[in-house]
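Duplicate of #3305? Posting structure anyway:
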């Protein structure tokens, strides 16, 4: 995005703009700028690369963020340019904190997700179990194309059998990229959640997969802290589903990374598989 255009837009909006700093330029789905104006509070300016991500994040900020206190709030949007102007939130990603501090943040993360998941949302016409089965079919096709037979044997087939034993499932509002890199804070009383470009109604356990694969498998205490905040434990069926879908997420991460030549993200997926498989 042309920064001259952004500067003109901000000057029309605020009058005096004292700073426009690229805050997170390496994000795969967007650029994020920190905006300083002639006033006490800064802003974030987020420029989406995809129309889908823009629409999903805009829907979150319009329909759900006003009911939540731990996310940025929408100030303005430009549909043609896929721009969101948001209130700024301060802090560092939880992933950079010491383990003791991360435990407090996982408790806060559980509390926030309980609040988000409790908000009313319109369900989709497609039955949720059928929707999950469709995703499972796509995953099995990806695994076959990649020549990774164990992904079919260890994940796709067990998940198919597991979903066949399911009670009806319901959708809730889901972040769908919920992990430590999207939690900001400086202490346990300052906890904020960012990056809602994947947001949509989905099965609640899909919000837990990255935590299971990336944090909890190696640090079980973080999982206990999360569920203390979330306010309930999982049933045996739910716990089995979470483990299997976390494996699916890890394999999918590896497949995507290899298609796009992203070695760093591939290492993340492989590490998650080792954690989940106890290797």
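Output from current build:
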């Amino acid at each position: 995005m042309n920064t001259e255009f952004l500067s003109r837009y901000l000057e029309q909006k605020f009058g005096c703009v004292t700073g426009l700093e690229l805050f997170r330029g390496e994000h795969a789905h967007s650029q994020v700028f920190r905006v300083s104006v002639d006033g006490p509070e800064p802003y974030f300016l987020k420029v989406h690369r995809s129309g889908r991500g823009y629409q999903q994040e805009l829907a979150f900020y319009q329909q759900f963020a006003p009911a939540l206190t731990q996310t940025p709030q929408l100030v303005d949007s430009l549909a043609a340019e896929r721009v969101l102007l948001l209130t700024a939130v301060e802090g560092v990603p939880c992933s950079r904190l010491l383990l003791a501090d991360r435990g407090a943040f996982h408790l806060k993360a559980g509390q926030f997700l309980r609040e988000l998941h409790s908000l009313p949302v319109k369900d989709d016409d497609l039955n949720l179990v059928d929707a999950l089965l469709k995703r499972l079919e796509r995953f099995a096709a990806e695994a076959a194309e990649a020549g990774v037979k164990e992904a079919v044997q260890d994940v796709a087939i067990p998940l198919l059998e597991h979903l066949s034993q399911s009670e009806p499932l319901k959708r809730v509002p889901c972040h769908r990229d919920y992990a430590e890199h999207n939690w900001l804070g400086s202490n346990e009383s300052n906890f904020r959640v960012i990056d809602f470009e994947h947001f949509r109604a989905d099965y609640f356990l899909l919000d837990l997969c990255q935590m299971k694969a990336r944090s909890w498998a190696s640090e079980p205490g973080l999982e206990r802290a999360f569920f203390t905040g979330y306010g309930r434990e999982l049933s045996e069926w739910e716990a089995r589903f979470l483990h299997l879908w976390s494996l699916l997420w890890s394999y999918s991460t590896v497949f995507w990374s290899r298609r796009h030549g992203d070695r760093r993200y591939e290492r993340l997926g492989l590490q998650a598989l080792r954690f989940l498989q106890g290797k």
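Confirmed duplicate; merging threads. The beta strands are 17-24, 30-37, 43-48, 74-78, 83-87, 92-93, 172-174, 183-187, 190-193, 200-202. Residues 3-87 form a domain with the Phosphorylase Kinase; domain 1 fold (CATH 3.30.200.20).
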